[in-house]
Design brief:
By secondary structure, this protein is an alpha+beta fold. 17% of the residues lie in helices and 37% in strands. The protein has an 8-stranded mixed β-sheet. Strands 10-11-12-9-13-16-15-14 form an 8-stranded mixed β-sheet.
Length: 311
Amino acid sequence: MIIVLAVALAGAIGGGVGTAQAEGNQGSGGSYERQLLFYNHSFGVLDRETADAIEHSDYLREFANFQVRTTTGTGGETWTGRYLMGRETYLELFGVGDVPGQDGTLGAAGLGLSVEHAGELATVKERLKDEGVTEPVDFLQTRDFGDGVPVPWFDAVLTTLEYDAFDAWGMEYRPEYFADPRGNTEPPSFPGDVGRERYLSDDYRTHLMRDVTAVRIAVTPGDLADTVPLLRAGGFSVRTVTGGGVVAEGGGTTIRLDVVPREQAGYQQVDMSLNRPVKDRHVERIGNSTLTVGPGSRAVWTFAKNGTTAR
């Protein structure tokens, strides 16, 4: 899922770190005792040729628990995505215009980070204040299963409502969603279980893809500045890399954010683990992207820079 915020929210509730403030705040650098946020999913808006190729790919339906669906969220906003779902993590891929507004433009991307235990998002919000986000933005995402009655889906927290092409949020699934049989979720594994494995089905077991182990996304300097406090508050170990980007590590998925101008922003690469090793290397061209599977227990999916030929 994505965070589609109604335009009316902008200016109604505050927040935002801003580049200058983020640069001035050194933050914790991963010094918190316990990691609370974990990679849940990321999304990217691709050129139409690639999005259509993904949607109609026979190989992806064999490779992963793959779905194409239209979702209705808060305020009646709808989006149509292509989903590759693993055990705990997944990908959400769009074509230009599949998401309303700014989130549907070429090169837009997003990152959802979730807690595993009920009540932990409140702790993340307190940590955000320590990271310089004085007014974190709260948001409730709902889902309409088609009967016109929105079901609370998850609570979210953002550092800002303003961004160039990339937004990230912390999230906690709601008990109402787990209680609704239409969500096809699993029973809790422990008291207060709001985890990723419970949310996703076990259909991944019959496919190759297991989980997302790394993502690389190109973002603007301002978007990076607004994201780093959330990564730190979530308990990731965050380090700066050559060029001014960052690598955030922790919880099984590495997140790399490279700094670029807006016209170069977007999805770059996704690494995935496999349920079983494969002997041979398979290369699948999907629109302007290349999915390389094996040999071994790893797959790498590279994406073109805003519609050019994938590297």
